[in-house]
From TrEMBL:
PANTHER family: OUTER SEGMENT 5. It comes from the Eukaryota. The lineage of its organism: Eukaryota, Metazoa, Chordata, Craniata, Vertebrata. This is Uncharacterized protein. Pfam families: WD40 (PF00400). GO terms for cellular component: cilium; intraciliary transport particle B.
Length: 154
């Protein structure tokens, strides 16, 4: 069985995501996002991504874009070089979950009692209500069935 320590941090790692070619790993460390190449001599990339602890990340293999969300009540879209592409307005509660659809065209955002569907630029997807009420979310997988079941206000 293969086990290896890729990094040791001074703060908890709340979320990890594989890079598109499985040659890099994206992980959280407090307010930082860190991309660690699996090659031993390669340099890692890190940047301050949020004003609070980062709770969830996802990295899409089709569009190579990164999602992050955190206790600062925002979600953000990044490119794989750490350049910010979109920042949401502040939500009422921490954004606890983000997840890309497999094709990279849309993603879902979960917060307390709310599920939002957004296009890949970060803007709420057309023809969706401003927010969808669901049970409190702590982890989110984007499946058509889930979106259909939760896509009802109230």
């Amino acid at each position: 069985m293969l086990r290896s320590t890729l990094a040791q941090q001074g703060s908890p790692v709340y979320s990890v995501a594989w890079g598109p070619d499985s040659d890099r790993i994206l992980y959280t460390s407090g307010r930082l996002l860190i991309i660690k190449p699996l090659q031993p001599s390669a340099k890692l990339l890190q940047w301050k991504a949020h004003d609070g602890i980062i709770l969830k990340v996802d990295w899409n293999s089709v569009n190579d874009l990164i999602l992050s969300s955190g206790e600062d009540c925002k979600y953000k879209v990044w490119d794989s070089y750490g350049r910010l592409l979109y920042t949401s307005s502040s939500h009422d509660y921490p954004v606890t979950s983000v997840s890309w659809s497999p094709d990279g065209e849309v993603f879902a955002v979960g917060s307390f009692n709310t599920l939002r569907l957004c296009d890949k630029t970060g803007v709420r997807a057309p023809r969706t209500p401003p927010h969808v009420h669901c049970q409190p979310l702590t982890h989110l997988c984007v499946l058509a069935l889930c979106v259909i079941q939760c896509d009802k206000p109230g």
